[in-house]
Amino acid sequence: xxxxxGVTLRRRTCCSDDDPKSSHGAKILKDFGxxxxxxxxxxxxxxxxxxxxxxxxxxxxxxxxKTMIDVAVLPTWLDxxxxxxxxxxxxxxxxxxxxxxxxxANGAAEVRLFANPEAVRTARQAWPAAEAQAIxxxxxxxxxxxxxxxxxxxxxxxxxxxxxxxxxxxxxxxxRAALAVRGARDIYIxxxxxxxxxxxxxxxxxxxxxxxxxxxxxxxxxALEDVLGAGAILWHILESTxxxxxxxxxxxWLAYHAFGSVKKRLPAALRLGAGGxxxxxxxxxxxxxxxxxLNSQPIVAQAHGDPPRVMRSQK
Length: 315
Known about the structure:
With 315 residues, the chain is α/β, with parallel strands linked by helices. The protein has two domains: 67-94 and 176-303, Alpha-Beta Complex (putative 2-phosphosulfolactate phosphatase), CATH 3.90.1560; 102-173, no CATH class. It is built from eleven helices and eleven strands. Strands 5-4-6-3-11-10-7-2-8-1-9 form an eleven-stranded mixed sheet, sandwiched between helices. Helix 6 crosses helix 7 and helix 7 (224-240) packs across helix 8. The longest helix has 17 residues, at 224-240. The model is unreliable at 1-22 and 39-65 (pLDDT under 50).
């Protein structure tokens, strides 16, 4: 196993309201290697504002005219009150997000998400004969659910298996996280495989409402790989637009810096987390390398409806 250098996470406060030409926020972004784009005549000068924890009842983003970018390291960190006006990304890097993205990239018509195996079986039994093929997929304890067609390994979802089909999927953490944010304005499925494409889809609506990156976690605990996936998306957002006024929460900055520290060693980093260790013990270590392949599946996966139906978006 590769060894990783020590990871130092530091946050420098970005809260100046001075002349934007000497903006402390802009200087910080430059310090971290984020190159400014040429100023646009249509863009108002960037002003860096103070922000507070969005889940503090005293804070109202709309009241102060600000939207924020946050990373919820577990779905339980979410406040349902902020979902309706938010764009949300669900991250379960090992492995639900990666499997969903791979299935769509390989031609699946859609992936429907269910909370438990019983719901998948019910949907499969009621599937109309005239509809396109339905494939059952999912895992419990990393292993394929008994009686299902496929497990939760991206390598199983090849074009010859899933092209044109609808996948009915239930996993331990990822599908449950997606169900938890059904009230959001826009829902995406993201990970390392499609980090840049997901970031591009988010860019247009950064000022329309909050942007929440929701890590699925592992059995109710924070998952390293999901935080790194969120950091990858943030990395591409900040690389794509020079916005010193974007209000990132502390957990968003933590995710950003964590990804920046290991982005050249992602397979090794994923092996260090509990999720990676679980796959190694289950004999599925090769899935880690597949899920760590940054931007290898450049598609946007967007969910609609209840239960969520994830389809490839043209954004």
